[in-house]
Amino acid sequence: MSVVTEAALTGLKAVYDRDGWCEISYRFTEQAVTLLKERVTANSQERWPEVVYEKDSDTVRGIHGCHAFDEVFDALVRHPQLVALAEELTGRPVYVYQFKVNLKQAREGAAWPWHQDYAFWSEEDGMPGAHAVNIALSLDDIHEGNGPLVVLPGSHRLGLLDLPEKEPEGGSDWQQHVAADLAYTVSEERAEKLAAEYGRVLITGKAGTVHAFHPSVVHSSSGNISPDRRALLLITYNAVDNAPENPTRPEFLVTRDSTRVTPVADDRLGLELLPPT
Ligand code: SIN
Ligand code: MN
Questions:
Q1: Class of the 10-273 domain?
Q2: Could you tell me which residues come within 8 angstroms of residue 200 by beta carbon, excluding any fewer than 6 positions away?
Q3: 178-234, pLDDT tens digit by residue?
């Protein structure tokens, strides 16, 4: 294991288990971030279903599943340090369940209401347990004004909250899992009560920084009211023995191949340790 991995993983699982999120002590280099951003731009310009737009607009909100056909994103999901991180935090061998880049364009990007990711994966896909982890990589500098993720630390320990009545036949439309009017939300009222009890954390940081968060942690993000774009790349690794049996959502939202991901080092995707705080 590299020095970077060892330093980053020490004591991390205890923090993650307690808080449902954690900050990683390395970041991707500027060169790596530039390359990843180039691929985001290229993929965003395609009119395929994997590209999702803001409501009634041509503004790109997110791109999905591109690791399946973009060799740079494929290299990223196989990054040995990211795979080691995911396996450390879930405690199990993992595969890539979902890949997306959520773009909040300057002054246009809409909010994500309070929700828990595991509500979607359990209700829509039949994921047996919350044995997955989100790895979040900031591709832009993320600050208070451009719609950072907000998490309620410790809320993952409550399990699933406020699920609506089961959707009629066939579940909800997948568009409702990537749009501002989400299918499964935690009510504002409930979230405010939880925030008073658990506190709230804004996940901010320079481009290249990496965080992890739990499938059941309650989170949201507000609209981008700033002149700065906010691009957040999210890889969800799921435990190999926790793959849903018969998912029906499109493959760009739910990977069907649950073979353990093979780590492959790639010189273009370098890491550097963050200076100690
Ligand atoms: C966001 O991009 O701000 C929301 C991400 C998420 O809900 O997982
Ligand atoms: Mn989410």
A1: mainly beta
A2: 150, 151, 152, 153
A3: 766 788 999 999 999 999 999 999 999 999 999 999 999 999 999 999 999 999 999
